[in-house]
Amino acid sequence: MTSKFDEYKRGNPPRQKKNHLWPLYGAGLQNLGVNDLPIDTNMPTYGTDELLVRHDACGLCFSDVKVIRLGQDHPRIHDRDIKKNPLTLGHEVTMTVVGVGDKLKDQYKPGDRFIIQADIMVKGVGYAYGYMIQGGLSQYNVLDQRVLNGDEGNYLIPVKPTTGYAESAIVEPWACVTAAYHLKYRTSLKTSGIAWFIGPESDRPYSISQGFNAKSHPDRIILTQMDGKLGQWLRSQASTLGILVEEKKDLERLSTEPDETQKVDDIILLQPYTNLIEKVSPYLGFHAILAICNPKQLERKLNIDVGRIHYDRWLYIGGADPDIAKVYAHIPIRSSLKPGGKALFIGAGGPMGRMHVQHAIEVSNGPAIIVCSDVSDLRLADLQDSFMQEAQEKGKQFICMNPTDQNEYKSTMAPFQQSGFDDVIVLAPIPAVISEAVTHLSNQGVMNIFAGVARGTFAELDLNDTLQRDTRVIGHSASSIEDMRTMLNQVEHGELFTNRSVAAIGSLEAVKEGMKALEDASYPGKVVIFPQIRNLPLTSLPNLKNILPEVYAKLKNDQEWTKEAEETLLNLML
After folding, report:
1. How confident is the model over 443-479, as pLDDT tens digits?
2. What string of H, E and C letters represents the secondary structure of 162-175?
3. Alpha-carbon distance 187 to 125, whole Å?
4. Which of 167, 256, 307, 411 has CB atoms 3.0–4.6 Å from 457's, for a disulfide?
5. Are strands 18-21 and 39-42 parallel, antiparallel or unpaired?
6. CATH code for the domain defined by 342-428
7. Separation CA 359–CA 164 (nearest Å)
8. What's this model's pTM, rounded to 2 decimal places?
9. Cβ-based neighbours of 527, under 8 Å, separated by 6 or more
10. How far is CA 403 from CA 80, 152, 417, 448, 449, in A?
């Protein structure tokens, strides 16, 4: 006898005439849905070059909460009045093809399964899935050529029929986690870029031994107070190499909010004045570097836009060598966790924090000491229950602490007070936390601001540590199509167990409750919505014992989601 689950996997066309979904009409949870419920719209029709897809599972993400808070003021929402044309969230989604346009029948068939790289670009314009394009908090959707033939080709990634729905849906956040450990940074002036040199030069014998010659050089340089030997050399080289030269005399009239045409790729400061660093930092473009080429002590901490470090990949470097090329190259930026090192995870008990901790335990050549910090004793206890034994079996020291308990905090951190941590991963988007976290870095330590702090968020950072101890502050939390393919491949080969991240499940009706749970940090892991099941309130995995005992019985160790639990859920609740 064919089960509901087996029938479901075939991807038959929908029998229903309505599509159940959650519209967002404006900023605030009160504008999500109608009367706190999803709505019904007509089942979408698809064209000859389009697909009709069924959304099978969708993870809720704190990025969704940010859209709800900002409404159409969110940077990914453009040219749209969402009160009249509401959007539907959900970018951590897995889907099944249930309808194929005539022109696509040689490429797709009902039952084909996919996840999606949500950052869809068409002619340089963003149409992110779950933002501008209707997302996974709906039962069905039509995929047009923006998805199937965008700037990076096809944004769909095939999923094997045997892969679970939840475990494939949350490949996306996992790809963001692992991508954070593969960030690449330049070790020289940007070739064909724009470099801004700011003096005065003093009597130091400045030079540039590499990156400013016929093989590689900026296309344009800006010179301010460059009246010494380096300035003369730069002008001479520029004349020989055909580099445009701009003389910028006045630093007093610099805009605090320069437009994109004024942004540069490199700023090289020959005098480490704190006010100057703060004044010129807004001129850094995407993936830009500010290099302080002077060993002098900075007189105070600086207010740095840490949101730009996170989203725009700004990097601050420094060094005492008068050869500017060596300041760039002497410490290549390490984004991977230091093998055998000490790692501190701040905000480790949340959904993304748990992924980082799991990665640190499972990755080959990972850290030997893992310290997890969270303000919730409940989440810390769950973290210990989930990972302590595995970490110990792998010979790793695993420590959890609550920083609000000062005695516990001091005793835990005391052994690391002198040596510091090789890696500090910040998962709490709070400026004061970021400012405090950077003080725990060891020599040549790296802090990754993974938390999505908004552009324009400032925190105090001591760049003297960057100058004298070669510490680095980096950040990013997005992923590429290749990152997602890699993660999915690891899931499907039993190398990565994303189901361990699931903490609670629910039907489409539970979305608003799930968003509130994200805001309140109610669960230690991911909330996963199954859009096709009958009404199921948001339910933690342990509470399934009372609500759906048949599903609970299929959990691993009474606490981890499994494909068997998912199949049982769908057989019972479709």
Report:
1. 999 999 998 788 888 999 999 999 999 999 999 878 8
2. CCCHHHHHCHHHHH
3. 30
4. 307
5. antiparallel
6. 3.40.50.720
7. 20
8. 0.90
9. 59, 60, 503, 504, 505, 506, 514, 517, 518, 538
10. 43, 44, 15, 19, 18
The answer on pLDDT for 294 being more than 70 is yes
Q: What is the CATH number of domain 4-180+482-573?
A: 3.90.180.10
Q: Do you know the residue count of the chain?
A: 574
Structural tokens at position 93: 């989604």
- Mean pLDDT of all residues in 186-199: 96
For residues 509 and 534, give the distance between their C-alpha atoms in angstroms, rounded to a whole number: 9
Alpha helices by DSSP H, listed for 394-533, are 406-413, 431-437, 464-468, 481-492, 511-520
Burial of 81 (0-12, 13-18, 19+ CB in 10 A): exposed
Q: What is the dihedral of CA 242, 243, 249, 250, to 10 degrees?
A: 150
Residue 146, pLDDT above cutoff 80? yes
- The confidence band for 487, taking pLDDT boundaries of 50, 70 and 90, is very high
For the chain, which residues make up each domain, given as ranges? 4-180+482-573, 194-329, 342-428
The helix (run of H) or strand (run of E) holding residue 227 is: none
Query: Cα(22)–Cα(89) distance, rounded to whole angstroms?
Result: 8
Q: Is 342-428 the same fold as 194-329?
A: yes
CATH of 194-329, one of 3.40.50.720, 3.40.50.880, 3.40.50.2300, 3.40.640.10: 3.40.50.720
Can you tell me the mean pLDDT for 514-539? 95
